Amino acid sequence: MNFGPLLFLGIFITFISAWIGLVFAPAASLKNVQATVVEGSTVANPRPYTGQELLGREIYQHNGCVYCHTQQVRGGTYNNDLERGWGSRRSNPQDYIYDRPVLLGTMRTGPDLANVGARLTNDNWHFTHFYDPQLITPGSMMAPISFLFELRPIGQTPAPDALKFNYVFITIAGDPGKALAELKTAGFNLVEQRGGRYVGGFDPAKGQELAKIPGVKSVEPYVPAGHEIVPTEDARNLVAYVKSLDHSYEVPPAANYGRLK
Amino acid sequence: MSAPAPTETELVGDRLDPGGIQAQNTAQMLSERQAIDASCRAPVLLFLGSSVFWLMVGTILALLASIKLHTPTLHSNISFLTFGRVRPAHLDMVAFGWSAMVGLGVSIWTVCRLCRVPLRFPQMIVMAAIIWNIGVAAGLYGVLAGQSNSIEWIEFPQYATFTLFVAFAIVAIWTIMTFTQRREKHVYVSLWYIFASMFWFPWIYATVQVLMNSPYAVQGVPQEAIHWWFGHNTLGVFFTPMGLAAIYYLLPKVIGRPIHSYALSILGFWSLALFYNWAGAHHLIAGPIPAWLITMSIVSSVMMFIPVTTTAINHHLTAYQHLDMLKFSPVLRFVVFGAMAYTLVSFQGSMMSVRVLNEPFHFTHHTIAHAHLGLYGFYTMVMFGAVYYIMPRLTGREFFSAHLMRVHFWCVAIGIVLMFFTLTIGGAIQGLDWNQAKRPLHDLIKEQGFISGLEAWFDRFKARQDQPIPFMTVLHEVLPYLWIRTFSGILIFLGHSAFAILVFWNLFGGGVTRIRTMLWPQKVSA
Ligand code: HEM
After folding, report:
1. Is a pLDDT exceeding 80 seen at residue B233?
2. B282 min Cα distance to partner chain A (Å)
3. How many other β-carbons are positioned within 10 Å of the β-carbon of residue A90?
4. What is the ipTM of this complex?
5. Ligand 1 centroid from CA B55, angstroms
6. Total domains present in chain A
7. pLDDT exceeds 80 at position B32
């Protein structure tokens, strides 16, 4: 018996049915989702990305942030997204109309970023976090992207957006407990231990005192003297993009479908 | 384990349908098979050899990715080794380098054997293999150099994607040509699966490229529906059919009995074709896409119980009475392991797509465990078996060390089982702690002991909490499991190294000549 044509037909039909259902139907039914204009104003939500934000979005794609971060807030008990402060409402198709490609993500090694721009607005925070996430969140699993920064000697004038932070590495001889307690009163703010050294923030006004504390063997600045850490253009664009992630506007109830709130 | 088990049915014909078996054992069949193998030698060996090379590359990237998840500062100043590039590179290498190449190599050979015609113009397939290799290498470069588009499964830059497409088109056209020239009237079930995958894959690949990754991309979230329709179908209607085809071919061949029920295999095929195609949107449960779409996909995911159960009955009942052969036949060991993993992973998948279970497990390492049980425990294991079966027939040499084969089997078997269980448990804790419990499981166990700690933990699934467990607490809770995963990765790496040594040694002339020398009159080296 010759099954050839029958086989082919069956394979074709099963395939095309799913194509219509999962490819064509959603594309056709969500074709007309648009930004909503806020009544009595010219503000439309969401707004299109700026050029710089789009460049930053490419950096986000090239460096695979999506493998650890989602960009979708879910409702109900799903991971308690709303209770965690990741958004004020569930994500909605309207939020993604300017996204190409849409980067929903599949893994939450890190927090959801759909509204990160609403909660973290400080450039210096982001730069420091990208350069060395573990400084900001001790024990963070986030991959540093220090390769988007440049460590260079300070020239005539310091770069305006050079990272502004005060961290030191401290080596301690003998019992660390006692020395650390004294360091703390001297304004040393321990972040974590790295390979035998303690890294932490300090108060520049009292910087000289740290080295005099008994047990402290050496104090080295995080940024070598006479140097500065400067974000490259890529890093600046990335921060612009991350800060633009804010979907906390209201959407019309009709568009807010789905079984969960 | 080195000599082929005496019961292998080299001398039994390629008609695996019930009743036809003994009739085919003629001298004419023998010379026919010899001609087929000779025509397949260069192209199929090229596909298999390259795939093993990419498997090693993918494994090293996997280890790196795994280590970077618990030790993120390792080499963090090197841009091309950052987690966000190594991880997609790992996925793409094991998917398009290893899985696709080995699957195509095995399928080409299987098609020729089952159609009973030699490969015409094998040079074209050689060329396809070369083009495919160029595509994979270019894609690897692109992803590591930071040109990835971060669309999971299609991270390759467009130049690499296009190259792969060309190579695939050649293979697909060749397969269909071989089919139309077939001398065997009966179309064995393996052929059905192979055809389905050859037909489906270019469609899904082209669709997703055009609608997501080109100037004609659709707007907004429908992209994600399309993305996961593709992502799921790569597994479901490309890799899975090739894996099932190999099981359906190898099991009866090695055991020497026909498949348990031919009718069941037909039901299994058509229900798979119907339901798998529809399952994609279960990757987006509770996401910002229409609920009806997700519900459709959940329904068809659950309906997958039908093809999976039929296939399971067929495979396991065929193998069941011959389990004593597992001791001797390397092929059978890998294939039976794969068939069991297939049953398990599919049932697990159907369960995971139900909303209540997806709620805690989505976005966690639980999903990663599932992915590895599927693509590794099932597909990769079956393909190991297929390589052990096919390579000696093409090179005319046995593998040189039974010892290394055992090392291979035990390392990867223990490795994948360990990885599956650690990530399943770690992922479950991660998800359940995110969702409802007020105190993390590990704290409760530390305070109250294992049993009552566990009890207290389950007690907490009552209401939604205003104060969810902090994100970082849960993250740190999962760390030990990630370390164990790295350990299992090292085991798997060792197993793969043994495998690679066996394969390349065989390719380049090591190993004794096959016992049935009469089948290999030409080109037999010492
Ligand atoms: C040495 C052995 C391996 C190790 C240590 C390993 C490790 C990993 C890691 C760390 C990830 C990323 C998980 C995440 O983002 O959290 C991953 C993803 C993945 N790996 Fe592997 N892997 C190994 C072998 C393989 C093999 C041989 C295959 C298939 C042939 C495979 C298939 C996949 C797939 C499909 C994913 C994507 C999972 C998803 O996103 O759902 N892996 N693997």
Report:
1. yes
2. 11
3. 24
4. 0.92
5. 12
6. 2
7. yes
